[in-house]
Amino acid sequence: MGSGPGGQHRNKTESAVRLRHLPTGLEVTATERRSQARNRGAALARLRDALAELGRTPAVRRPTRPGRGARERRLSDKRHHGARKAARRGED
After folding, report:
1. Structural domain of residue 50, as residue ranges?
2. pTM
3. Residue 39 in contact with residue 32, Cβ under 8 Å?
4. How many separate domains does the chain show?
5. Is 21 part of a structural domain of the chain?
6. 31 sits in which H/E element
7. CB 5 within 8 A of CB 15
8. In this structure, what CATH number is given to the domain that contains residue 50?
9. Which end of the chain has less neighbouring CB within 10 Å, N or C?
């Protein structure tokens, strides 16, 4: 992690932050800044985002089928397209 803002000074300072949410065991770290206070803020934001994601329940997806009207339109369009192609070939 020697490159980027801070360079060697960033590697010499011990400013990394690791936060753990004890009830869930979720752990996040932040090491990208030289300031421990800024790393703490970044890690706390990540922990909040991760906890929000854990609490979110995905919407139930139910498979659906096209209705009768949609099927009829699709078949009608296919017949129309086939008739146009047959007319180009000179078929009846």
Report:
1. 7-55
2. 0.56
3. yes
4. 1
5. yes
6. none
7. no
8. 3.30.160.20
9. C
Alpha-helical regions (H) of 1-92: 7-12, 36-55, 68-89
Which of 28, 29, 39 is CA-nearest to residue 6?
39
What letters, b where the CB count within 10 A reaches 16 and e where it falls short, cover 32-69?
A: ebbeeeebeebbeebbeebeeeeeeeeeeeeeeeeeee
Q: For residue 12, tell me if it sits in a domain.
A: yes
For residue 69, being part of any structural domain is answered with no
Looking at this protein, which amino acid is placed at residue 80? H
Q: What is the pLDDT of residues 31-90, one digit of tens each?
A: 988 889 999 999 999 999 999 999 899 999 999 999 999 999 999 999 999 999 999 998
* 14 within some domain: yes
Structure tokens at 48: 């909040």
Amino acid at 2: G
Q: Which two tokens stand for residue 5?
A: 């803002």
